[in-house]
Amino acid sequence: MSNIAERWQNIREKVDTTAKQAGRLPNEVTVLAVSKTFPADDVRAAWAAGAREFGENYVQEGVEKIAELDDLPAIWHFIGPLQSNKTRPVAEHFHWVHTVDREKIAQRLNDQRPSHLPPLQVCLQVNISADPAKSGVSIDELAPLAQQVAQLPNLTLRGLMTVPALDLDDTALSAQFAQMQQAFKALQSLHPDMDTLSMGMSDDMALAIQHGSTCVRIGRGIFGHRERKGNLA
Ligand SMILES: *Cc1c(COP(=O)(O)O)cnc(C)c1O
């Protein structure tokens, strides 16, 4: 068995165990395999091991990999910072975007989504740590942005995403994940079809699952050491 297959199984088992311990069903939590900086062959190895959904951070790299792997019916999530001059390739090639944080980006994605494709699946990024170096809206700004996105016909509002600050201890992290869970539930009362809370990475996935995460984003835990440092914005 390849290292990637072994690590995938190990992560999937950890997620299943953590979900059960938290009184949840394992199939409520998707493991998004974050393949940024890793070659297409590594994605194939993860696919062979059972991974079905992949996350990419960089537009150009992601689009190239999707083209190289177009024989696989994989689901591709864009999870990186998105500038308005880069929305078109994302709208044309990805299934999901986790990092919508302003109306202008949402509008462009909507306008550029090809009509032969289903709507783009969208999460709103929340800057839960109020970190000036990170993208995302505050919890106060969520409801109006959600309202705008929900009105765009070529986008489907699926939920929320967050990347907390790096230097938090478990107590602070727990508090922020709890705030996310609360904000998610509050927004669900206005948008009942929302079903996705994208939070948790290699080091904090257990805490995230305890706080209702439905999608953990794991890169190194599956693909191994990354040469180029990932952009965690
Ligand atoms: C890189 C990245 C991940 C995965 O991080 P790892 O440390 O490789 O597990 C998850 N989410 C986002 C937004 C990322 O940029």
TrEMBL record:
Domain of life: Bacteria
All copies of domain Alanine racemase N-terminal, residue ranges: 10-226
Annotated positions of the N6-(pyridoxal phosphate)lysine modification: 36
Keywords: Pyridoxal phosphate
Function statement: Pyridoxal 5'-phosphate (PLP)-binding protein, which is involved in PLP homeostasis.
Family of the protein in this entry: Belongs to the pyridoxal phosphate-binding protein YggS/PROSC family.
The protein's name: Pyridoxal phosphate homeostasis protein
